[in-house]
Amino acid sequence: MGRLFIESVSGPKIFKCKCCEVDTASHSDIVSKDFQGRLGKAYLFRNVVNISLGPIEERYLISGLHIVNDIYCSSCQQILGWKYEKAYEPSQKYKEGMYILERERLLKERR
Q1: How many CB atoms lie within 10 A of CB 72?
Q2: What are the strands of the beta sheet with 99-102, ordered from one edge?
Q3: pLDDT tens for residues 53-103?
Q4: What is the model's pTM?
Q5: What's the order of all strands across the beta sheet hosting 23-26?
Q6: pLDDT attached to residue 3
Q7: In terms of CATH architecture, what is 13-110?
Q8: Would you list the domain boundaries of the chain?
Q9: Is residue 57 helix, strand or coil?
Q10: How confident is the model at residue 1, as a pLDDT?
Q11: Distances (CA, A) of 59 to 3, 12, 84, 93, 101
Q12: Separation between Cα atoms, residue 65 and residue 59, nearest integer Å
């Protein structure tokens, strides 16, 4: 196995994986805080780092049927949320290519 490449996030507030404390996202990349994850409150981000994608699957969510991938921390493989690949409802198309991170699985750090 090779060396793991870890990307750092800049900004005054960042989110890290709760298990291994690897940078995951910048507060400035939050699109919305009004989402629900498996474990409670979740945030919609336009960009995240240090993740790996699971297989693509269709999933019924609160807002309807979507094609999504679960996302995992690239360091410790803890599930962090999911990525929206496709939304079937026209009103949900803005989510395509964006990421949900579950608040319960993150640490928030001020720099």
Answers
A1: 18
A2: 30-37, 40-45, 99-102, 79-87, 64-73, 51-61
A3: 999 999 999 899 999 999 999 999 999 999 999 999 999 999 999 999 999
A4: 0.92
A5: 23-26, 13-17, 106-110
A6: 77
A7: Beta Complex (2.170)
A8: 13-110
A9: strand
A10: 55
A11: 34, 34, 10, 15, 16
A12: 6
